Amino acid sequence: MNLDGALNAFFPIFKWSDATSLIDAIKAIKSEDELEFIRKTAEMQDRLVDEVRGFIRPGLRDFEVMAFAQYKANLFGSEQGYFLGTSASQDGAPLPLRRPYQGRLIQEGDIFFFQAENPAQAECLHTLAGYSCLVRPSKRLSICSRQPLQRKSLP
């Protein structure tokens, strides 16, 4: 049973119908103001990633990197947001983990996974995630990341 069928079953005095396709079409159209908010939020995230990559170093704990990211995001205009990430050896798997799991001490040669979702003006959200290596990546990791992430610009 789909959602509108379930709603009709529970509330038979109303006629429910799925308007997802109508709403999606409306949401897809962006005003110039909305496009500008999206651009500014994306620029803030790009700047944040640059700052975090410059800050990560052996001897810090994962949570210190996340705290730095949140601090910088606030300075750049973030109104709220969340920051996930951990480090691991190049044979391990850094994951997008929350604060209770961010206590690992970063070592020389580690990989660091960082994910941030930040809204800036008008609650425009932008999610960004990526890996950083603290030394030249291993052959295994290099093979997995031959194609760099491409930034896509808005019209």
Q: Which helices and strands, and how do they pair?
A:
Blueprint: H1 3-10, H2 20-28, H3 32-55, H4 62-76, E1 82-88, E2 111-119, E3 125-133, H5 139-144
Antiparallel strand pairs: 1-2, 2-3
Helix pairs in contact: 3-4
Question: What's this model, at a glance?
Answer:
The chain is 40% helix and 16% strand.
Overall structural domain count: 1
The run of helices and strands is HHHHEEEH
CATH superfamily: Creatinase/methionine aminopeptidase superfamily
Query: For this structure, what is the CATH class?
Result: Alpha Beta
Measured between the Cα atoms of the first and last residue, the distance is 40 Å
Compute the average pLDDT: 79
Q: How many strands in all?
A: 3
Number of helices: 5
Strand order of the largest sheet: 1-2-3
Helix coverage percent of residues? 40-55%
Description:
By secondary structure, the chain is of the alpha+beta class. It has one domain (34-144): Alpha-Beta Complex (Creatine Amidinohydrolase). Helices cover 40% and strands 16% of the residues. The chain is built from 5 helices and 3 strands. The chain has helices at 3-10, 20-28, 32-55, 62-76, 139-144; strands at residues 82-88, 111-119, 125-133. It has a 3-stranded antiparallel beta sheet with strand order 1-2-3, covered by helices on one side. Helix 3 runs antiparallel to helix 4 (62-76). The chain is elongated, with a radius of gyration of 21 Å. The protein starts with a helix and ends in an 11-residue tail after the last helix.
